[in-house]
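pinned: reference chain
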Amino acid sequence: MATPKVLMLPGWQGSGHAHWQMHWVRRYAYQLVEQHDWMRPLRGDWLARLEDVMSDLNEPVYLVAHGLGCIQVAAWAQISAHGQKVEAALLVAPSDVEASHLENVFSSWRPIELKALPFKSTLIGSQNNPDCSASRAAYFAKCWGSQYLHLGEFGQLNAQSNLGDWPEGHALLNDLMKEKEHGH
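pinned: its structure tokens
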């Protein structure tokens, strides 16, 4: 089996240097999917960018998405010609782009795609994420067919959550990868 590729999909405004996603990029040489405009994210642009990156890959792929990146994965999975390349996805602290306080920023992202993902996924939520309530995160997990893990009070599970390189999160990614290796 080919060595799997791990793609990092940050959310709105990207993941800064101290974000666990960037720790993982540096430590494990995972590939960051860069966006043309992190501040004014347009759904079509972000989906096209992920499709472009996926078209160049021939090995098995794991997606690690944060915030808006989770919504990107859900939308992309329903339109992509390359979805079969994805072995599994780790979806962390999705952004509820339908929430009233986010509607002006994410108008092109509504409605949220709620069809089941065509690959295994784990969604990690937090009790006090200001961009997605725990109940909405659980609802997304149910719709997408994701295993749902609730971590307690960790906010947006970003750099401000003081997770460092978040070894617990990386262990969850490793679990997803091992499950696929063993055919579960």
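why pinned: The chain has five helices and six strands. The CA atoms of residues 14 and 38 lie 6 Å apart.
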